[in-house]
Design goal:
about 550 residues, alpha/beta, Nucleotidyltransferase, domain 5, Hypothetical protein af1432, 3 domains, 6-stranded mixed beta sheet, 14 strands, about 45% helix, ATPase_NBD, Ppx_GppA_C
């Protein structure tokens, strides 16, 4: 049933997935908890592949938040703005055609995170997508996949950031399991490293906390492994890169270039953790390969890596220099038509993720698909007459239509509100945080009260996004009414707009000639009021007679 319904999914390929032929230069910026990183690449559409031509990094410590409020500090915000201005200037000096940027854990959790992103747009002129932990994990997977040959072996990827750690089980076909846990090098240093050097008591507390936080995702990850599979363990980002650099300098006297593929054992990491725990900050600074900023947080980051490897019973881990930023590049290439064959399955990650969430919450897919079909049909038919939304908004409407009844999983009472929560906090991949907010709100307003300014978080959104929610959710209300009995009584709809009298004529075609569709018509008469108010039209519905099939 799912395959047949894919025809009603908004076809992003028509507008953005056409195979590209022109080479371009792309800059990807990752606004993390500890640092801001930028990578600039040249994309060759023929292969297709990208070549890294420059990297930029600055430690801004967004994770050093206000202790009482949890807000990003003014100093960290100013440091970040200054760094982003330099990144933009550098990208332009390299003649970058496009700049994409994402923000992760620290911005995601801060009460003033959205204000920070708005300030970036005003001061720097860069739009930043706020992504969820699961979306961050997915893009890390894409980045690693672009730099490693997985062959037929499953890989466990461990990415330790400043605010969170992503643990991923994946193969060359797909990511089987994605997780994001709030144990990061900056966060843990703030919470547990209270003395210099750390006390034995605090060190024990740090280890115990990390073990407790990682236990659940690692236990769940194991359930996705097939009997007999022996996954390869891969590490990405700053902590493991620093450990490998130190080890290489001590063993070889030099740092291999590239570091990609360098292996380090659990025993070697354990020895370094013990060593770091006994040293002061100044002593760690004297270690060759250790930067001043990394010396502050290396102990906590190393503990996370050691405990994860111990729980996974992994003796060695391989470094991959590609991670989130490179994953952003691959994701951009996928959505802009530069990758047509290899990794093509990833272009459908949104749709597959929506269906996965629908299945998780026992959504009646037959009904949901009919509702989505009606919603998209009406969207198309009134486009240019009553609204000017495009393909992107249509895709959000589709996702909201499929998931609008997911809240029934909790209870029938106020299930539209439950739907909002489940969608907003579900594991929908491929969407930014603001897109998740929009989908959740469109689904939330498919029944009962229309959107109001007193409703939070709807009231906190910009005017244009509130308008989108109001208009798309009113379309969804009409669509829900047309399948009131959830039996497919209405086969299709045709609409005609009369601008002179401001009337929208809906011609409804029943599936069965003898069915008067009384309940659907009654519910439509009830649901259309919000649509009429929003679009300033009168909706006139007519049930068309159909010829009896002999």
């Amino acid at each position: 049933m799912v395959n047949s319904y894919h025809q009603t999914i908004p076809n992003r390929t028509k507008s953005t997935m056409i195979t590209q032929s022109a080479p371009c230069t792309l800059a990807a910026i990752d606004i993390g908890t500890n640092s801001i990183h930028m990578v600039v690449v040249h994309i060759d559409p023929v292969i297709p592949a990208f070549t890294i031509i420059a990297r930029e990094k600055d430690t801004v410590r967004l994770g050093d938040r206000e202790p009482k409020t949890g807000e990003l500090t003014r100093e960290a915000i100013l440091r970040s703005i200054a760094t982003l201005k330099r990144c933009k200037e550098f990208a332009h000096s390299l003649e970058a055609d496009h700049i994409v940027a994402v923000a992760t854990s620290a911005t995601r959790e801060a009460p003033n995170g959205e204000n920070f992103l708005q300030l970036i747009e005003q001061e720097v002129g860069i739009g930043v997508d706020l992504i969820s932990g699961y979306e961050e994990a997915r893009r890390i997977y894409l980045g690693v996949l672009s730099g490693m040959d997985f062959q037929s072996q499953p890989h466990i990827i461990i990415d330790i950031g400043g605010g969170s750690t992503e643990i991923i089980l994946a193969d060359s076909e797909d990511a089987r399991f994605l997780s994001s846990t709030k144990v990061g090098a900056v966060r843990l240093t703030q919470d547990f490293v209270k003395s210099d050097p750390i006390t034995e008591t605090d060190f024990a507390s740090l280890r115990a906390y990390v073990q407790g936080m990682l236990e659940r995702p690692i236990d769940e990850l194991r359930t996705y492994l097939q009997p007999g599979e022996e996954p390869r363990i891969v590490g990405t980002s700053g902590t493991i890169e620093t450990l490998v650099t130190i080890l290489a300098l001590e063993k070889l006297g030099t740092v291999p270039s590239p570091l990609n593929g360098y292996q380090i054992t659990r025993k070697e990491i354990k020895d370094m953790v013990k060593r770091f725990a006994s040293m002061t900050y100044e002593q760690r600074l004297t270690i060759a390969g250790m930067s001043d900023k990394r010396a502050e947080i290396i102990l906590a980051g190393s503990v996370v890596l050691l405990e994860a490897m111990t729980m996974l019973k992994a003796e060695t881990i391989t470094l991959c220099e590609r991670a989130l930023r490179e994953g952003m590049i691959v994701d951009w290439m996928l959505t802009h038509g530069y990758i047509a064959d290899r990794l093509r399955y990833q272009s459908e990650v949104r749709q597959r993720s929506v269906f996965k969430l629908a299945h998780k919450y026992n959504v009646n897919l037959d009904h949901a698909q009919r509702v989505a079909g009606f919603a998209l049909s009406l969207f198309d038919q009134i486009q240019g007459y009553l609204h000017t939304w495009g393909t992107q908004e249509k895709e959000l409407l589709w996702a909201a239509s499929i998931l609008h009844n997911s809240g029934l999983y909790i209870s029938h009472s106020a299930h539209h509100k439950h739907s909002y929560y489940l969608i907003r906090h579900g594991e929908l991949l491929g969407y930014t945080e603001i897109e998740l907010e929009l989908i959740a709100n469109i689904a939330r307003y498919h029944r009962k009260s229309k959107p109001k300014k007193k409703h939070i978080p709807y009231s906190q959104l910009p005017d244009n996004q509130r308008k989108m929610i109001k208009q798309l959710s009113s379309i969804l209300r009409i669509a829900v009414a047309l399948d009131r009995r959830q039996i497919g009584a209405i086969e299709r709809l045709e609409s005609k707009y009369d601008p002179e009298y401001k009337k929208l004529h809906l011609h409804l075609f029943p599936s069965q000639p003898e069915d008067d569709c009384a309940l659907e018509l009654w519910n439509l008469d009830y649901k259309k009021v919000v649509f009429e108010e929003e679009y300033n039209v009168q909706v006139v519905a007519t049930l068309e007679s159909v010829a009896v099939r002999v």
